[in-house]
Amino acid sequence: MHSVVIHFHIIFALLLIIHHANSRLSSIFNAQFFFVKAIIPVAGAGTKLRPLTYTQPKALIPIAGKTILGVIVDQLLDAGVTEFVFVIGYLGEKIQRYIDKTYPHLKHTFVTQNDRRGTGHAIWLTKEAVQNDEVMIVLGDTVCDYNVKDIMNSSVSQIGVRKVDDPRSFGVAELNDKDIVIRMVEKPLIPKSNMAMVGIYYIKETTAMYAALETHLNNTADENGEYHLTNALQHMIEDGIKFHAFRVNNWFDCGKKETLLSTNAILLKQMADANPGREIPSFDSTVIIPPVSIAEGCTIRHCIIGPNVTIGEYTKMESSIVSDSIIGSYAELQQVVLNSSIIGNDAYVRGLSQSLNIGDNTEIDLG
């Protein structure tokens, strides 16, 4: 009888341990694997990157062997985000084809913004697709270096920031000594902070966000007819919702040629550092200077390529020197020397030594 009692206590203790272990595992699972959707607005026309963006969305411009949008999506996928909402508009059918082809198994929704009325309006359009789920909002022309998992494990909403020299062109976050956001202002004439918001937001209180957007959309827009997400988030702060600011390690605003090329160079270096043994393709009588990314199907003869060059698929190059540049798919270059250049898809360039920014379907012969 005494042995039976001892066995009972042992079994009871084991059951308690298993119960607490299951509770602990459940809490860890719930903390780390809660459901977060990603909203990526990619409806803009990309006017600062014309003529490249006359025929393709800015988000699909190639960098480091991917596209701007591909870099953003892969970063979120690696962090465990499984469902995406894309806000499309200008050339939106190309965004749809790209996602369907590149990520055939991705769970996603497309929301169309026919009138470009700002980021606030774009996010408001996603209300039905998001419902009450928490969201990561990442603007579709911004590539940042930060730990996505850490942000999504936060107990409060988060906003990505970066110190800039002139914050008047950005949304600005004013912070207290604990990095809690006390005020947000869109493009202030006299900034009280040099912390620019980089276009990354983790929102836990989505119901409150959509309510604030609704209120904001019923009020007057700015002088350009746009409704800014910044103003709705400021409304949430005034209602007592806490936002913490996190600093990104690097911020690459890919809206201009110069920043696009610098982003390409940095990402190529990171890719090379992460895969030091990666095999570099060889071509006929051609010197490759890493880091470079050369897509499949390319024909290259008698060239010097690199450093910091991305070349799209099925491009032909002959007797050329190219460095610090992005070359689109199906382009053809003959007897050119290019540096700090962007060449679009299906472009043809022959006999030139310049810095170029050439859109898709262009033919130039200066020989």
How would you explain this protein's 3D organization?
The longest helix has 31 residues, at 2-32. The chain has two domains: 34-255, Spore Coat Polysaccharide Biosynthesis Protein SpsA, Chain A, CATH 3.90.550.10; 275-365, UDP N-Acetylglucosamine Acyltransferase, domain 1 (3 Solenoid), CATH 2.160.10.10. Helix 7 crosses helix 8 (229-238). It is built from nine helices and 26 strands. It has helices spanning 2-32, 68-78, 92-102, 119-124, 127-130, 148-152, 206-217, 229-238, 257-274, and strands at residues 36-42, 62-63, 66-67, 83-88, 107-112, 134-138, 142-145, 157-163, 171-175, 181-186, 195-203, 243-247, 250-253, 287-288, 292-294, 299-301, 304-305, 309-311, 316-318, 321-323, 325-327, 332-339, 342-343, 348-354, 357-358, 363-365. It is α/β, with parallel strands linked by helices and 367 residues long. A hairpin with a 2-residue loop joins strand 2 (62-63) and strand 3 (66-67). It is elongated. Strands 14, 16, 17, 19, 20, 22, 24 and 26 form an eight-stranded parallel β-sheet that branches.
